[in-house]
Every structure is written in C-alpha cells, then in structure tokens.
Amino acid sequence: MPDQGFTLFDTAIGRCGVAWGRRGLVGVQLPEAREQETRARLERRFPEARESAPPAGVRRALADIGALLRGEKRDLSGIALEMDRLPPFHRRVYEIARGIPPGATLSYGEIAARLGAPGSARAVGQALGRNPFAIVVPCHRVLAAGGKLGGFSANGGVATKLRLLAIEGAGAGETLPLFEGDGTLGFDPHAAVEHLRASDAALGRLIGAVGPFRLELKKTPSVFVALAEAIVYQQLHGKAAAAIFARLCALFPHAHQGPTPERILRASDEKLRGAGLSRPKLLALRDLARRARAGEIPTLAEARRMDDEEILERLTAVRGIGRWTVEMLLMFRLGRPDVLPADDYGIRKGFAIAFKKRALPTRAELERRGARWKPYRTVASWYLWRAVEQAAVD
User: Fold this and answer.
1) CB under 8 Å, gap of 24 or more: what pairs does 290-295 form?
2) Which residues form the catalytic set?
3) Element holding 20 (H helix, E strand)
4) What is the pLDDT of residues 346-356, one digit of tens each?
5) Who has greater pLDDT, 12 or 131?
6) pTM (2 decimals)?
7) How far apart are CA 34 and CA 238, in angstroms?
8) What domains sit in the chain, N to C, each tagged with a CATH number?
9) Are 85 and 64 in contact (CB under 8 A)?
C-alpha cells in the first residue's frame, strides 16, 4: 500500500479531490474547470500519491465534506490532517481557522490577535493563501478588514469564496428566513406530483421517467440582493456572471451578505463599472437601489404576504427586470407553487419533447394545457426542464 493516495469525489460545487497519508489528509483540491484538470493538479501537488480507493477514515471525511457543501450543518474539525511538514506559523493559523464554525467569519487581523501577534495580519493572509486543506481548514471564512471579502486562491477566486459562504449561510442570523418550518418549499411536493399525475397522463409519463421532484430553493438575504444578482447574470455565461457578481460584492464590507441599496447608490460609476458591469446593468442596478430605498421593493416578509401577480407588477417596474426574471424569483427564491414561465425556451422545448410536438408551442397553447396543472405549475415546469436535459443525454 502506498504511503499516499488520492481520489476524486462529487460535491454540490463540482468534482473535488482529496489526498491522504498514513495519519490523515494531506490535501484537499477544489474543482478546476474540468475533471482532468482537478486530477492533474492533485498529481502535481502530491507526486507520490496514487489514485486509489480511500480508507474508511477518509471515506467518512468525504461524506462530511459533501454534506457541508450541500448546506448541511457538519463539523469538520475532527478530520485528521497531516501537518508535520508545514511551517509552525501556518499550523497555528490553520488550527485557529478550523475553530470558525459554519455561518461565522473572522478577519485576518482577528486571527493574528488570537495568535498573540496583532501585527501579523498580512502573514496570516499569506498562510491561508497556501492552505492545502481547503474546506477542512475553512480559509473562505476569513475576511479582510472591515468585513470585505478578501482574496481566495482556489479556482474561481472570490466567486468561489462567495459561493462557499452562501452555502454555509454566513451571516444567516442577520437575515430573515425564507419560510417557516423546514426552510425549503412552501407546498407539499408529494401532493403536487400526485395532482399532476392525475390531471395529465402525458405529464405523468414524464414524471415517471424523470423521478422525484428535487427543486431546491436558492437562499437569499433579501429580494433586493436576489434581483441585483439576476441583473448581473442577464445574458451572460454562468461563470462569467458569477465572477462579476463576486467582484461587485467584494467592493463592499460583508460581501457574503450581498450589496445594499445605500452602498450601490453611494458607489461611483467608475467603481461599479470596474467590477465588470455594462452600462445598461449599471443603470438597472441604480434604479433597483433607488426603488428599494424608497420602499418600492418588498422585503422577504412582505413578499410572503403578496400574491404572485402583485409581486410581478411591483418588480417589473424596475429598469431591466422583466416578467421572466420575476418568475424565476418566484420559483427558485420564494418557492411559489403555481408559476408557469410560458415564454421560457426550455419550458417550450420540454413541452414539445414531452408531448411529442414537432413545433414549439405558442404561449396560448402552453397556457391552455397548463390550466390542467394548476395549482402546481411550478412543479410541471421543473419537469419540462428535465425533459430537455434527458433529451440531451439520450
């Protein structure tokens, strides 16, 4: 048996890697752009390791890492790490960082103070920049002075750091939960699926082929932040949009909580454009911020008391926010059960596949059929999107 081994494993943020020695993990690798690049990075970092099946202790560590990245509460401080070859200062920094629980953060300066070396914040940052145990030593929970995001050396940079903090719900105690109870959907998904099976045989066959309904809500600290992110993402590839939104957030303190209307309005055009915003998106963000400051954008608590059409009418008044954007917020942020984005290409394509149509349906045709699916058109829409995914695989 070799002294070191490595393996790749699936997580909610992509395919990660881990390497181990005789006494514990020697490194964790966050996903690169492609699986082969993640494997190559592990091979370069640990040339003596051979790809192999992980031992029992490592398997337990992988399960805990995967659970944490799915948003579950999981303590990784008990995972054994081999740090013998690391500089003593780095080991001390990593030990303090391991004590930061999910949902909490420290600054580089606060870690330096806990080390008894208050002038060593820069050295702390350098040590965390060389952290070989990403996630297990949670360097993403360490921020720059004033609550700013700071750097991150993994693939994706600050966008990855922001995503990890969002998954863990950093600052969750300062935000309003989306729903009472389990914090996921505002309706019973099992009842919804049974209703759809009973009301439309063709849709029922699609449900049988796809399997269980697995829509998961995207958490957000506010309707304002959700709409700001939507504006940034419009007409951009996901990775490019994520990088721009992360740079926008990183302009301000407490970046993991998203920008506020006041900060957007106080920031200069040059500062906002420097994050990568186009002129139209800059104008849309400023209009959103002005309306939020004027009380025209509902809070999450207010949105829960409003019906779908009232939310649509209120939010589509914002520059750059159309019906589709609000429908996505209703479905994926607010968990509304009866939303049918009839102009969405994926919905129309999925309908044509599921109902064996040669041409894409018109909006009127889709809405007529969709009347059978009320009051669970959100669930039907989710299955139509899955029809397109399945067709691409087949």
Assistant:
1) 290/261, 290/265, 291/317, 291/318, 292/224, 292/261, 293/261, 293/262, 293/265
2) 344
3) strand 14-20
4) 999 999 999 99
5) 131
6) 0.69
7) 15
8) 5-69 (3.30.160.70), 88-168 (1.10.10.10), 185-217+338-394 (1.10.1670.40), 223-332 (1.10.340.30)
9) no
